């Protein structure tokens, strides 16, 4: 059973930082691409960052490039999202995603963690 559990959200002032984590069980993260999405109130879910499996290459949405950094800890089987210089428009629920449909499995999501950037 594949499970994703996010943590690390909270309330932060503009310009501040937060670090989100996603702990995965039931699947080795090095074997597939992992993604962070976010959903702001009244908006569609958007892709924020991606890290590939074996190579560990990262890509980012233009809106977070230079401020967010996605990484993976293979020993702990977790991915993280370091968010710096946060802006009010970064507010939303952040979701960890592992799409294993190419392997004949499901598209897995965590429960989400709330990030609120406000003064």
How large, in whole angstroms, is the Cα Rg? 14 Å
Q: How would you describe the shape?
A: globular
User: Helix/strand/pairing class, anyone?
Assistant: mainly beta
Mean pLDDT: 96
Largest sheet: 7 strands, mixed
Give the H and E element order.
Answer: EEEEEEEEEEE
Total DSSP E strands: 11
Distance between the termini: 40 Å
Helical element count? Answer: 0
> Residue share in helices?
under 10%
Low-confidence stretches are none
Q: Strand portion, in percent?
A: over 45%
Written description of the protein model:
A hairpin with a 4-residue loop joins strand 7 and strand 8 (78-83). The strands form 2 sheets. Strands 2, 4, 5, 6, 9, 10 and 11 form a 7-stranded mixed sheet that branches. This protein starts with a strand and ends with a strand. With 119 residues, the protein is an all-beta fold. It has no helices and 11 strands. Helix content is 0%, strand content 50%.
């Amino acid at each position: 059973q594949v499970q994703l559990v996010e943590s690390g959200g909270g309330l932060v002032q503009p310009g501040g930082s937060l670090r989100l984590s996603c702990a995965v069980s039931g699947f080795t993260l090095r074997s597939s691409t992992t993604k962070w999405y976010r959903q702001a109130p009244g908006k569609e879910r958007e892709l924020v960052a991606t890290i590939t499996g074996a190579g560990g290459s990262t890509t980012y949405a233009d809106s977070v490039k230079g401020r967010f950094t996605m990484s993976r800890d293979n020993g702990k089987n977790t991915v993280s999202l370091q968010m710096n210089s946060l802006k009010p428009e970064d507010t939303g629920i952040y979701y960890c995603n592992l799409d294993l449909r190419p392997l004949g499995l499901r598209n897995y999501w965590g429960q989400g963690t709330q990030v609120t950037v406000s003064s």
